[in-house]
Amino acid sequence: MKKSIQMAGAYIGTVVGAGFASGQEVLQFFTSFGWLGFIGAILATLLFAFLGMNIVQIGSRLQTDSHKNVVYSICGKYLGIVVDFIITFFLFGVAVIMFAGAGSTFEQQFGIPSAIGSLIMVLLTIATCFFNVEKVLTIIGGITPALIVLVLIIAAYALFTMDTSFAELNNLAQGQKSAASNWFLSGILYVSFNITCAIPILAVMGGTTKNLKIAGMGGILGGIGLGLMLILINVGMYTRLDDIGGLDIPMLYLANEISPIVGIFMSIVLLAMIFNTAVGVLYGFAVRVMKPGTMKFNGLVTALGFIGFAASFVGFTKLVGTLYPITGYLGFALIAAVIIYWVRGKRKLGNQQIEKKVSSF
């Protein structure tokens, strides 16, 4: 059970980044649909658990140390090339969003210009990629429980301090920018781009154990944990939509409303999660292209970091609302491949059981 919980923590830590923890993703993908957004969040929870379980178990069966093996196993040779490219491209896109999110956090909480805040995050990310990445990510990953506690506190505060009727909130929600045309599509899109980002970690994580039950439970618990955080953040966004609509970092606004100390603590935790994700995705993108620990690798990481810094000027909110849905649509191929792989596995198991029963007569 301990191993499963560790896997679940890694799953949650990989998905939770600037967009998730800040509330910006939730605002565009769920809150903007009013009360229907909660049904979308439940749908996303089920998908997070199902897909996480399957990908980790595939990684366990293959005993893989790379997501490439898992992708080609479930997608086949030709589709595998396409999905592998999407994942690699998206890793860089997420890094850009993390840099933009850091800039917005520094500006909203500390009054530091967003460009300077983004540059600080870029320099820290580049420097970390030069050294022991795994150790740093493990340390920062330990902050995830603190984030969960903060999200719970903020959601409870938002719920008990709401002074707007649900009818009015639904009207306000309709005026918010949505990432998709309806709540059902939005819920699937949200899971799609997050799974595309998480599959490198989920696949490698599965390869660390040969026990399929432990691997599967890790994926399920991680998916449920993500879903609960998603629902809690949506509570905070929805019940205080009259105050936070239009903000880059809505959760930070609510934290500061509770107390300036809570706001500072939330900003530190948020920046740590952004840093965790930025290092993971930038390193993951670079290592897919070049061998780490070399001067060429360090040069590539530096170049990618500053290209990402330049791209972050597009703006955090705009990047979340543009890149994530595009990647979500592309990631549908990955979700479909996982479901088909699962169905085939069930049929194969069923046929084996029938054969056993026939042979026993």
From TrEMBL:
Signal sequence region: none
UniProt xrefs under InterPro entries: YkvI-like
Highest taxon listed in the record's lineage: Bacteria
Transmembrane segments: 33-57, 78-100, 112-133, 140-160, 180-202, 214-238, 258-285, 297-316, 322-343
Keyword flag Ribonucleoprotein: no
Keywords: Membrane, Transmembrane, Transmembrane helix
Keyword set includes Transmembrane: yes
PANTHER family xrefs: CONSERVED MEMBRANE PROTEIN (PTHR37814), MEMBRANE PROTEIN (PTHR37814:SF1)
Protein name per UniProt: Membrane protein YkvI
